[in-house]
Structures are given as C-alpha cells and as structure tokens.
Design goal:
Layout (H helix, E strand, L loop, with lengths): L8 H13 L8 H15 L4 H9 L4 H12 L10 H18 L5 E7 L5 H14 L7 E8 L2 H9 L1 E2 L9 H7 E4 L2 E4 L1 H4 L2 E5 L17 E6 L8 H13 L1 E9 L12 E6 L2 E6 L18 H4 L33 H11 L3 H14 L4 H13 L3 H14 L4 H13 L3 H16 L15 H19 L1
Parallel strand pairs: 1-2, 1-7, 2-6, 7-8
Antiparallel strand pairs: 3-5, 4-5, 8-10, 9-10
Helix pairs in contact: 2-4, 3-4, 5-6, 12-13, 12-14, 13-14, 14-15, 14-16, 15-16, 16-17, 16-18, 17-18
Amino acid sequence: MPVFAPGHPFWRLKAEVIARTGHFYYADKDDVLWERVRRRLAAVRLEDVEAYVRLLDDPQAGPAEWRRLEGEITVGETYFLRYVEQFTALKSHILPELIARHAHSKRLRIWSAGCATGAEPYSVAILLAELLGDQIADWRLTILGTDINEAALEAARTASFGAWALRSLSAEQRSAWFTQEGRSWRLRPRFRSLVRFQYGNLLDLLGPAAPLDLTDFDLILCRNVLIYFHPEAMNAVVGALAQRLGEAGWLLVGHAEPNPGFEAHVRTITLPGAVAYRRRAPGDEPPAAPAASWTPPPSVVTESPPPPQALPPAPAPTPRPVDPPRGPISEARTAPLADIRILANLGLFAEAEALCQEALAETSSEPAAYFYLGLISQAQGRLSEAEDALRRAVYLDGTFLMAQYHLGLVRLERGDQEAGRRALAAVARLAASLSPASPLCEGDGLRAGDLRELARLQLEKDGRGRR
C-alpha cells in the first residue's frame, strides 16, 4: 500500500471507519483497510483518498457511499450450523425452553445481529421448524437478520448458497432443507418464509437514534461480530443487547467473545459444550452499570497511525500457539489459515487459493493448507484437484479427520464409491476411538461424535443408493 504521511486524509478516513462501525480490527490493519478503500476508489472512479473523503462528506451522495464502504470492510461468515455445539444447545435446551415458556402466547422473537448472508438466522429457522413440526402454523415467529453489509443482505434474501456454505451439513440435511439449482443450493420456501432481513449497525444501539422496534427478543445471536470491536465497545454493545432481551431472554455470542465484563448486564449459563447468557431475573440485578456508550480511544481518532500500545487483540476465533499441535483434538490456527478461511467464507476463492499456495510455498508439509485448498477446489467443482489436495493432507497427518471425511465425500461425488466408502469408514472408526466431545482440528466446532454420525449417515445413504 502507499505510505501515508501523518495528517493524510487516509488517517481521518480510518478513524471514521472505526468510529462508525466499531471495527477496531482495522487499528493495525492499514494494508487490509487500504485494499477495501482502493476497491471503492475504483468503483466510483476517483484517483485519491482526499477526493473520496470529500465524496463521503457530501450530504447528498455521502450516506449511500458510506453504506457501500461499510459493506466492503465487513467480514461475514456464510455457512450453516457454524459451531455445532452451540446449535446443539439451541436445539436441545434453549429453543425447547422458549417453546415451553411461550406455549400460551405462541409468540417468539429472535434476532441474528450481524447475520452476513443469512446462514445463521436460516439455521435457527430450520431448527424451529423441526421442533414445532405441524404446530408451527399456530405460532407467531419473528426471526430477524440485520447487518451493515447491504450486498450481503441482498444475497441473504435470495437464500441461495454455494457448496462452501453447506460444507458442515450431511447429504440428508442438504436434501431435506435445500433444493439444488445447478451448482447452488436454495433453501426451501417453508424455511425462507420465517426470516426477514434489514439493515442494522450495532453501534446505532448506543446512540440517541437507536431503532425502537429492536426490543423484547427471546433470543439474540451476536456471534463472531464482537471480536472485531474495541473491548469498551464490545461491553457497551452487550449491555445494549441485554436491554433488548425480553424477560429471561437468551444471548449467544461467538466462542472467542465471552468477557467477564458481560456479567454487569447478563448472567452466564453453562450448557453442554457451550456458554450462553441470560437476562437477569427481577431481584438478580448486578450493581448499576454505566449507561451503554462508547467513544473511540484517542489513539484511534487522531489523524496519524495508532501507537503500538493501541493495537487490539488479534481477531482470532481460537487461541493460536506458535507451534500448533497436530491431531484430531487440536483447534489451533495459524494467521495465514485464518485469512484463508475468511476469504473463502466471503466467496473470494481465487484470493483464498493464492494464500494457500503461498503457505505451501513456505512449507509443503502443512496439512491444513492442503485441506483448505481441497475445500476451495471442491466448492468450485474441481473435484480431481480437490481429491489430490485432501489426499495430501491425509498423507501428512493420518489423524486429520476433517480432511479424511471430505476426501471421502469428494470420492463419492466423483463416482468412486469404493474408495469413498473406505475413507468414510476410516473416519467413523477413528472418531469412535475418541471421546464424543473431542473437538476436531479445522472442524470449526464439530466434535468427534458429530463427525462419526455424519460419516455413518453418508455410508448408509451410499449403501441405499447402491442397492
């Protein structure tokens, strides 16, 4: 990226981006922010940042361009049932409790804050439809998805997803919940009809013009959004979300986001494999907390690069040791792999594949890089390349169950049933040798017991197809 001297309009733009979106992630990511800004410069055919800042300041054109820039700088996850243990907690505990508690009114309000392209609220809709069955027609269900990325919201409304977004689902789940349209999968109408989408900036909750309709929710999901915020903004937003919960309402955040400061607003509930939060009951109130508010730290709003001490924690979904251990129970990540995952989730497969190749150029013995290269090739229909990359990942680490599972799926998809079944049977055996609750390397929350069941279902389905 260009070198911007202190006082350059880029620093003012960066400060305003952080102030408007809360994305403190960009405090030490100038190169990443510049790439996003550069795309908007090309889109509006401007040559420099100074002219672009004038456009953003324009009272007529500025608001619409700010929306487009906000959409460019946000990162959205786009796959179903992300973090299986949280959805297991929803299906086995939280949603049944809400259904029982509201059996008389038959009314539920659910909000997915930072919904990206809709996989999260649609996943909740699927769970509710399965839990309520034929009784769903008697219920008044509100499932709202909000995001600051309007392009993502438009994609969410189409409810059409590529193979990458469905990678955690079994073949039975895909066929039951989606219809295939070429290389895309479209959510069935009975699930689509339960969800609506609208623009929403979480920082608006902290200002005087907070939306009045966002209130009295029985469940709020705000997962993998807060990790990009400054800690002060994170706590303020959680306080604002807690105020918008109904009596005994539930709040779910991402795995890397729990913070002791949340206890000022909600109480922690430990569920099997997951941590949730709940609005405090009358008489269970903590000492009065300050009103929810946030001002970007001075080190951010100055028109010069932030000092080293202002750098935020890395926005990683899980801790990353320097030397990540191998094996099925490791959830360690390296920074390049996190970037690969983010790019792939955004559908930027060419950029993600280039990072995979860069990682493999540094060390050709990294199984996870081959794993993601295989998934990216599979998502683009290049099955031969996908099989080769996944086979290399398994060769380098024979305990890499997620690589072996996807290798089996790719071989079945290529028509090699015998080799595919062998790979899936090996996955089932290895998973059975672990504790069912063991997390899996690159499983994004999937546990050994979950994977064993997925492999079993795939083997049964393939067996039925062969008879």
